[in-house]
Queue: 3 jobs
Job 1
Amino acid sequence: MSLLTITALAAAAFLLAYRFYGAFLAKRVFCLDDAKPTPALLLVMLLAAPSVCAEERSKLLPSKQEAQKVCEYVAGMEKPIIQDYFLRRGYLDVNNDNAPEYIQSGLTGSMGGDFFEFVAQDGKVFSIEPEGFEWKEYWTHGQAILPFGGKVYFVHFKEEDMLYPSYLGYATADNREYAICEFKNKVTEFVSGGNHDFCAKLSAQKINPLLFDEENKLPYPVEGRRETGASKAGKVDFDNDGSQDLLVLLHYASGAGRGCDVNYFDTLAESKDKLLLGEKHNLLMKMQEIHPEDRHPGNCSGNETSWFTLDGTTYLENKYRDDAPTRQSQEFHTVKYLKNGEVETACEYGFIVETSVSGYKF
Ligand SMILES: [Ca+2]
Ligand SMILES: [Ca+2]
């Protein structure tokens, strides 16, 4: 191939790229808004000053040192008083352009969550939009404003309670928010109630849950309970009265709002095509803190529930799903049993969340 052919092909490729990506390059690489330089000028810019915009942008964002300081600061915040670190009302320069705006916050959307709007000095209401990432990457519902070291940052949390920080963002004058760092949360469980000796014994051994593997003929939805289906059935002396009871595992799953997932047991008739509602049912609901008649029957955060026996007593364990809670509403773990018709707590667990910076976004 001759030099002339190569040059001609390169020029054609450039013109084609200019045709489709010229405006994009002008905006993203050279920070030119609503402008498309001529092909010749763009070529000169490409050759002479690659990523001018990236440099411009890095001048706008906090330095590496600043980012490390603020991210470590957030990771080290004292959880019980974490609300005190943030500002929710008043005037503050949230987009770091040297002009303060008024913070206006409110709930929005079917999923609620912290959402801030700001009123600029000219009365214009604006919000801050993510740049370079999407909300669903982090799936956060809590948000807080943090003035730190002469700049203003946004800290995003899994939920509004602010106990599980997810990432830290920084907004620039064009009201775009850049992710600066991400956090991870290590959760440690401890026995907070019940019989400590029993709980220690429990955690020292592997106890298999009682098997639920019997089919049933319950229709969907079960007994007119909205969005509730039946899983397998099984026999267990759940109330420790010496006789086996037929139970079925029910699953409530609703996509409304943030979604709701509840697993719970109910008493099943011998015919296996309907529930057996009565005193035993009432006791079982009380033990599980389940209210089938409510909009959602229990804690929506998803749970794992199972029966096991130890030294002749049947226990019910109910806990968050998966390995560890990732938000405060998942911080539950109990072992209960029934004795003479009363609900007893064998173990109750508390949670300690330790936050650390898991990575920087530059
Ligand atoms: Ca401002
Ligand atoms: Ca029984």
Job 2
Amino acid sequence: MEPTFFPITGYKPVLISFPNHASAIVLPMSQKRMPACGKAGGEDDANEMNTASALHQDALVFDAHSDTLLRVADKNYQLADRHTEGDMDLPRMREGGLDVAGLAIFVHPRKHEGRIRERTLQLFQALERQLDLNSDLMTLARTTAEAETIVAKGKIAIFVGLEAGDAIQDSLDLLREYYERGVRYMTLTWINSNNWAGSSGESEKKQGMTDFGFKVVEEMNRLGMMVDLSHASDETVRDALRVSAQPMILSHSCSRSLCNIPRNIPDDLAQAIAERGGVVGVNYCLDYLDASFGERIKALRDQFAPREKELREHYKDEPEVLQQHLEALRTERKQAAACFLAARSDYRIVVDHIDHFVRLLGIDHVGLGSDFDGVEYFPSGLEDVTKLPCLTEEMQARGYDEVAIRKILGGNFMRVFRKVIG
Ligand SMILES: [Zn+2]
């Protein structure tokens, strides 16, 4: 579906106040503006852009989820170098005004079956090496006070989150070991259900948590580790809401009301999470933002899947040759997607999801969770971390005031992290 935009003449912001929350001035979603980012405009546009840019650079910007460590571990990706591939590195984080990066330690449960702990430790080592090499630019944060000190020194604070509860191998001892090593949040599942929690990727099973799952949440509460409900099934979210004594987050999830897929959070559960003091970090993955794009890209992936399976089978003993063939297949698929990629939604669709959550939950419960380096397609104008100021500019253009923008950019996640991890 080609998005329709209505340029506004005589634009007037509309004041929306939320009971029990600070008020924000929000433009109704039906009144979309033409994109301001990067366009040649008049003096007013230039002033607006300068103010937004100054606010963005001054604000604490917190991205709750990215998968860049996979590149670091598997492709010898040096965070200090500026790359043309991938979505994040230190020079680009600085340019995009990012202050706090939530880096995921993601272990693919099937790919690393039988050696999940080893793979988890391998990712830790990759991160720790980068922290050593770049100690003048980035530092691991174990508390929000540490994060604030690191940011005040002009460096990027790193929080570590485990993606997929599979990593703990059904062991609370291992959960505690990861905490000692610096992990401060964990998604209960990834796209697969595990032995103790159901995933949205298997939503048809309607599986929640087992008694051991409850113990995991209770131990995370006790340790001061944030429960991250992104990827969890609705049943798991409901169970976690029953058992958790602490607020919980969705580090990288969009709204099911705007894009109806199981991976996104329905309004009633988002409200329940917010009522406990939690925060939803809006994901920039286009498949989760725009249902029509998601359907098209899924159809294309399904079309190419048999050939990929065939290649994996045929070259299973020749990994390098297999990689070459897979790369060629990916290029072919990208070419096939070119026609609808060119017309894809732009970065303002992220702010549509932000708007929805702000209206539903109030201004104190919305944040950012990019999924950079974890997914294939992002909206145009938001291709990598350098483009983050566009979101601030768009929020400002829709009438969000400075206080509201600072909360969404990072203040809300800092608040909930402070409450849970210290
Ligand atoms: Zn994820």
Job 3
Amino acid sequence: MLRIGLVVFVLAWILGPYSLRSAVPIWLVFALALGLEVHFLLGALRSGPARRPDRRPQPVDRDRYGYEGEADDLLLVRYGDEERWLPYSGETDEELDALLTEKDELDEDDDDEEVTSPAVTESQHVFRAVRRFLVGLGVIGALVLTIWFVESRTGWGSLAGDTRLEAAARFSGEASRIAEKPVTIRCDESRDYVGSVQHADGVAYLGGDRAYLTPERCYDLYRLAFEGEVTFSQTARALAVLTHEAWHLRGVSDEGVTECYALQSGVEVGRRLGLSEDTARRMMRQQLTENQLRGAGSLEYRVPADCRNGGRLDLDPGEDRFP
Ligand SMILES: [Zn+2]
């Protein structure tokens, strides 16, 4: 069940929403799965094989009926309607024949017991436990290879180094226009700065000259600017993140105000990167609506009430449309 769960989770991680990727480092999941496999292996080796029940007379029977230990042969004999265990001790031929027949059956029982003696099942048991462990390792290895393959063939990481530099320079140029000074946008492939905290699609030093975006957001911007490919809400989010960090670099610290300015700047940046003005406006309006629908968990990022057409935060009061 755990292995099936692992496979389902990894597929969800690859195909699912971006928030899952940014919230859960996949290598941590693999480390946990590996730890569980080792735990199961050690547990199985420690517990040993399951013992078969011993159907012969038990010590409690011997106490009750007064028989000695294993040294005597035990025979099942009939007294009227009653069956009883007795030690064999030189009966007459007729009695012996009858008793030997009974004893043969008992010996067959004994043979069964010897086939499954602990010495044999011990090695079988170890073999099974190790085999199960190797299957588990195989599953984890296959999933790691899948992730590696997907990551290297898709997304920001699959682009050539020159292309990534060229794209980052383009994003830096757009951010510099907003910040009104030269700034650098980096796409944080090592995820040292972004991606580990929820909603942290980007990080900027307040009033500084450098900001980091997640590779996913950089790839969305690359697809728009270099390939003309648009995925409406993803492209919209990527534009909003780029402009949001640019406004932080300009020196705006309040998250709500920053986001309000970012969504207005996003129209111009989107248009410059290849969108029609109409599409760019619809994207930023969608981002504004999404922002207003956010739950109490991200109140800090909610735009203030005066983030509206003609409001205090309207960057272009003369313009009738917002954003
Ligand atoms: Zn911010």
